[in-house]
Amino acid sequence: MIDGFLALYIFMLAAFTGYEIIARVPVILHTPLMSGSNFVHGIVLVGAMVALGHAETSFEIAIGFLGVLLGAGNAAGGYVVTERMLEMFKSSKPAGGKEAK
Amino acid sequence: MAWLPTLIKACYFLAALLFILGLKRMSSPRTARGGIVWAGVGMLLAVLATFALPDIHNRALILVAVLIGVSAAWWSGRRVAMTAMPQMVALYNGMGGGAAAAIGAAELIGYANSSITLLDGGKFTADGAAPGTAQLALAVLGALIGAVSFSGSLIAFAKLQGWLDRRFVFPGQRVINMLVLAAAVAIGVALVCGQLSLSLIAAFFVLALLFGLMMTLPIGGADMPVVISLYNAFTGLAVAFEGFVLQNEAMIIAGTVVGAAGTLLTQLMAKAMNRSIGNVLFGNFGASGAVAQEIGGSQKPIEANDAAVMMAYAERVVIVPGYGMAVAQAQHKVWEFAQLLIARGVKVKFAIHPVAGRMPGHMNVLLAEAGVPYDLIADMEDINPEFPATDVALVIGANDVVNPLAKTDPASPIYGMPILDVSAAKHVIVVKRGKGTGFAGIENALFYADNARMLYGDGQAAAGQLVAELKTLDT
């Protein structure tokens, strides 16, 4: 599996990737991007599913269940909110051109 | 079924790739819309792959929890107004942090249950797979960050929602907060060193949640965007750490990317407000004991018809929208008014402060919703030199971002924040509900300036009056 140094390399490269993606972003996209990255860390759902899937005692099951519930909320809510924000970017461009008269 | 683990790993790899490509597409306006769909496909792949993991039990329970979580969030996310987006982001982000903390808790409790204490105080785990120190440390660290992000985000949500409009400040607060954090960290270290008892784990989570709560309570509403962005980065990191514990590559990469991107985004936002992140977190608004400058003069009202005439015969009008305009749902009326002015040959621009609205770019989204084209929207750097040549600056629903005290009064809590220089315009018309102070609770010197006139009223009603008055001029 992933040993210590390999994990560090993954961490470093992923961190640079995240930094580079955001580095040249226009201000108007800050809010949708924050929302979009909020959706991406909804991947925590996968971990919560594993935790619940491995739970044995009822207490562990309760905690795992809560985790899955919250993770699913993060993923679904993050998607809907981001999608709704970005929808406006689609409609505003052609519509804006028309309405400018 | 030897191919199944490989297929699942491949799905995680694809998911990580789609997340990165999706975020990349979201960082340009042209491709932004496709970006979220790409990331969504990645999420779907990862979730389906996890269902297929061979060693998963409780599948029915998992399905029930996913369905409840998804439908509740989907329903709330669909029906919330655009103006309330920032607090929804805070809420969903808090849920992610909570989920990361729950994973950490489940792992720690699992270790605690499976380890047997020997008489000489040594430990070994029943199934022979003793958690390594690094794994324990990451589980604890991820749980700590996740729990802080969870309770902190919920407070941020409550504040933006208006459920908690007071800041809770008391003497020695900073010291107490630091003590709570130190206690949480100390217990965390004990957990890592093998003192895995249920009561210690419980105490650890109580302290971590308490710290998130107490850290966020004293922060004023105006600073919330920076705080939400910071917690967003926190959750990303927590997810990455728990990903290391679970050996899940998709979580590691997605969490780390978000952690780094969120950190940079937080810095950009703080910079737009001319404040450091440390200042936002620990230098609370109004904490300085300095005496604020006295503001002389009085607020001078103006009627809607006078205001309309003033702008109808102006050459250049700059409209400065603020969150108040969006709350009053006045952006459509304001845009209608602007179109009427443009039809009369007036040069109209919208000036947007970097932190107008509740988050950077929030106001652009709200104006885009009303159909205002991009080329009429100007940034602060572009528009500030134009104010001296502007006949009328129409401030509607904005307050702190046009407050000249940010430039003149070192005792003011917003001193040093760059502002839109509207007072340099020949005339300023301020549409405002009443005489109260703004979101940050600070008196605004602009309203008392000689060239400023106040048009009192609800943003939507006032904009409607202005439209009506303009139309009567034409007939």
UniProtKB/TrEMBL annotation, chain A:
Q: What is its EC number?
A: 7.1.1.1
Q: What is this protein called?
A: proton-translocating NAD(P)(+) transhydrogenase
Q: Looking at the Swiss-Prot or TrEMBL record, what is one Pfam family this protein matches?
A: PNTB_4TM
* Physiological role: The transhydrogenation between NADH and NADP is coupled to respiration and ATP hydrolysis and functions as a proton pump across the membrane.
Extract the InterPro entries matched here.
NADP_transhyd_a_C (IPR024605)
Topologically, how does it sit relative to the membrane?
Multi-pass membrane protein
Origin organism is: Dyella koreensis
Limits of the NAD(P) transhydrogenase alpha subunit C-terminal domain: 8-90
Q: Where in the cell is it found?
A: Cell inner membrane
Tree of life domain: Bacteria
- According to the record, the segments passing through the membrane are 6-27, 61-81
